[in-house]
Amino acid sequence: MNVTEAINTRRSIRKFKDTPVGHDLLLRLADAGRLAPSASNLQAWKFIFLTEKELVGKISLFSPGLSGNPPIILIICSDMAYALEHGSRNSEIYGCMMDASMAAENIMLKAQEEGLGTCAVKSYNDAAVRKILSLPDTYRIELLLSIGWPDGEPRIPRRKKLEEVVTFNGWRKDNES
């Protein structure tokens, strides 16, 4: 599968088979994430794969955006103290979020190539998830990714036309809808 095919066929998966995902495959996903661009090359991210069914269940209780009983939840975090110490306040506020998003996209595209489904989730109870994971205070949860083998074909979402989202050389009023 080439990159264009992965981009064109990737969907947010919200229903998963109850089939394990191998450890080596998860490491390949993490490797794709670690190769993502990083502002000032800080790489302040941490990828926490939850593979134990009980732990996944606990996190799901506090994450209304998770659905479909994923066998794996990936928590993408940023070490804010590291970002501030080795970068800047801007790195801490914006860079880490941007880095985590790019890492997540790499992971989602790699998962698509491998036949896995994913769904990025930002709706979760931060305090509860932090407590369950015993996450250090210096770490910020950026997002969760549900990961697993898709159960069924997701619907294809409607996308805006290219001319609705593209302008060249500045803003053009005629592109407003």
- Strands of the biggest beta sheet: in what spatial order? 1-2-4-3
Overall 3D form? globular
Decide which structural class fits the backbone: alpha+beta
> How many distinct helices?
7
Instruction: Report the end-to-end length measured between terminal Cα atoms.
Output: 35 Å
Structural key phrases:
177 residues; alpha+beta; four-stranded antiparallel beta sheet; 4 strands; 41% helix; globular
Task: Report on this structure.
This protein is α+β, with helices and mostly antiparallel strands. It contains 7 helices and 4 strands. The chain has helices at 3-9, 23-34, 53-61, 80-86, 89-114, 126-133, 162-165; strands at 45-50, 72-79, 117-121, 139-148. The longest helix is centred in the middle third of the chain and has 26 residues, at 89-114. It starts with a helix and ends in a 12-residue tail after the last helix.
In brief, what are we looking at here?
The chain contains seven helices and four strands. With 177 residues, it is of the alpha+beta class.
